[in-house]
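Q: Got a minute? One more chain.
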Amino acid sequence: MGVINTTPDSFSDGSQLGCSDSGRFRVDVDQTLRRAETMVAEGATFVDIGGESTRPGASAVGIGEELDRVIPVVEAIHRNLDVCISVDSSSPEVMSAAIAAGAELINDVRALADERALTIVSESSVAVCLMHMQGQPRSMQKTFHYDDVVAEVREFLQARVDRCLQAGMASSRLLIDPGFGFGKSVTHNYRLLRELDALAAIGLPVLVGVSRKSMIAAVTERALDQRLAGSLAAAVLAMERGARVVRTHDVAATMDAIRVHCACRDA
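A: Always. Here it is, folded:
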């Protein structure tokens, strides 16, 4: 899953895909489409488009602005590329518009906690990735607590899965994500990575997003643009423990790691 951030304050590369216009960030749709084309050529099965940063300390974005950032990109990719379009949003309005524009997966860091979002997704045919987050993006890395992070993340995800099933969604439409970096310490993140098979045991595809994150910097002491090797190591460890989708900023290198992992597994 290739990451496409259409935000000026992304922790990674979103500001490269647009410019400020009268104080408001404007997405360059053609440039973003070229980024998606490159990712597909490098092997991406999904492209994940986000119009609101969920990095620690991120500010909220208005619905209108998020729609302006995301929907034209979804429409352009849907017209031009054969790839599964994922939209990273918790907004029911954005979800509805994205589904109408061609999105096939909703990637919600709040795991459809908003009942309106649950209704919109359940009444569609799209898939959804349910992610664990303790707290909210603006404050999630300031205050958090777990007695047993693996057990508590699993319990949360199972509860959200059960709620989706109760809403009439087939299990084949569901993915789960432990939410690395979302209200968790470095130790919490690495324990979740070490014991990821406990989440895979839920029986649904596990999506992991570790690419370039601070959990990589914490042990490598590398700057943002120097975290590829650490990100690949974490991705392979995740795959060994049952991950089925790897969300990454570096598609070509991650695909090489996936191919080597699969060759070893299948030998």
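A: The mean pLDDT is 92.
Q: Perfect, thanks.
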